[in-house]
């Protein structure tokens, strides 16, 4: 190899550099053998005339240094470096020496670095070539970490100060970036007396004489402001904030009356630089929120946030979409102030922006709907009025594009919506759309994502009629569809059903429709079904599902006897062996299946809970309707009785309470059920929704109705949260039943209102 490398071309040199590194990483030889046989070949090729080859060998050497013992590094690398770093050597040799010195700083003790490495570092910092000074300046960060804070203050900082005033713009840029990266190593005095004046100087010159540093300054501004936060005076704090605002708007102000060709050329040259500056400002926006304090966001930074979210450049809006979640977290209870920008980015014309935003969409929506301290369950959707149209528009735009991965990602994230919006809104705006995607889309990952999200929507749907309608459509349009492709998607959907629902739910609605596909005319459908049969069998419980087990065994026998396709028959035989080895769970808990049975029990409890809540909701609506009818009758009677004499009116006054109290006695059971429904739903909620404000005391039946409907609404919203499924039904046993006296008080107060509120003190009812 060594003989060939003398005359080898560029490609062979590059391959040899990579191969030598691979030999080291895979430990093909001992480190002693490697340093004896390979190291000197690497060192010989460092100064190859081709820059690409030289850099490849340098990368190999820097990786080798990590594994070599100190003595070998000192004799083979450090000692020869003294001569190669001299001014008499070539430019390439001195550049290589800078990078090697930066790597060696972490390999030796501080006193060795001070004695043998720092003199070379100082010499290279004063080199006549600006490329060498720039390269050495960028290695000062590694050297400072090797020598510690004390030597950094006395040796490295003076060099950085001098390099920051260098005549070469690239040297000044390197010095500025190194200063920012070393801020943590400087004490408060160094920051206030040395670093801060330099930073102010950079900021002042960036717009006038030194625009080369503008992009780097905008990128590091967030780190710089927070690093120097403790030493800023109020005036300096305001000055840096104004500087950030100026950078955020750079290039957006139109020049008035300047249309010369020279100015147009200058604008074209600066356009990319200004876009990069605004992009960096978008990147630093979360850091600037910390700088000004989230409480002052609306006053100090909201206008900049608005402009960056509406920036004409896609890259700027993309960066804002990427950092949107961080901004929402920092604002916490003030997150409601940026809901319009969320809608704007969801409706952005660029799918790249949408893709960046969707990554944390569930967390953002959760913060938006629940982040505010005063945002209760009832105000979930009110805080983002345009959310649903924005979400549907985003999905439709992704669907019509060729970027199916973005569409798939969007559908997966939309699975969070049951925790954000109501069941009816999901049913009418999203659920049928998912079914349409499964039936019409041509991309398999997109169809599977839509199927899983649809199953999640079905799980949290609160109306049995709607659930039955969706199940019927899945069976008819997918399971019994004309296209074999739809029938394959039905089997995929059944897998998600088994994952998300209880075993009893699957057996009740989907077990037999799945088995019907054993007679499918297409071999691929029968083959996929065979792969699914073990999972299907695992949903059975003995003795409850004994008849279903018999149906399964019958279908398998038919497949074994009647199947003509060789591939399907092979899979059937393999599946039969697997089914024979399976153990079916029984109704009672078993130690082997304890965790699975417990999880299935929670799913089943959740499904029963939805049914019971729907029934209680219906009872509540019926009671409200009846109480409304009673009020209407009483009003009509009052209108008729007002025409009689005062004596007759007085006798009627005595007769009405008797009749209403009799009515209340007849309706007391219904009221008790309603109160039980409220108390049951309250106890079954997630803890964060359980602290529902107590209803204010009212003296009229109307107040009672409105408070009940308010509690019903909060209960409905609270049940969109997934975490309530961990609460058992047993915890809701302690229900608050209203006494007969409270029932009488309720209707007596209504009568008093009917009679012109003759009694001065209204009776109060507690719920």
Written description of the protein model:
- The structure is a single chain.
- With 767 residues, this protein is mostly helical.
- The protein is built from 38 helices and two strands.
- The chain has helices at residues 2-5, 10-25, 31-37, 39-44, 51-67, 70-84, 91-104, 110-125, 130-147, 149-164, 169-181, 188-206, 214-227, 234-248, 261-283, 285-292, 297-300, 302-309, 314-331, 339-346, 351-358, 361-370, 387-400, 404-413, 423-440, 444-460, 464-479, 484-500, 503-509, 511-515, 523-538, 546-562, 566-581, 594-641, 646-683, 687-690, 701-718, 740-754; strands spanning 541-542, 585-586.
- The protein is extended and about 95 Å long.
- Residues 730-749 have a biased composition (Low complexity).
Strand runs, count: 2
So what's the overall shape? extended
The CA-CA distance between the termini, in Å, is 91 Å
Major sheet characteristics? 2 strands, parallel
Helix content: over 70%
CA-based gyration radius: 38 Å
Which structural class do the helices and strands define?
mainly alpha
User: What is the strand content?
Assistant: under 5%
Q: Largest beta sheet: what is the strand line-up?
A: 1-2
Helical segment count? 38
Main location: cytoplasm
Protein name: Serine/threonine-protein phosphatase 4 regulatory subunit 4
Function: Putative regulatory subunit of serine/threonine-protein phosphatase 4.
HEAT repeats: 117-154, 156-194
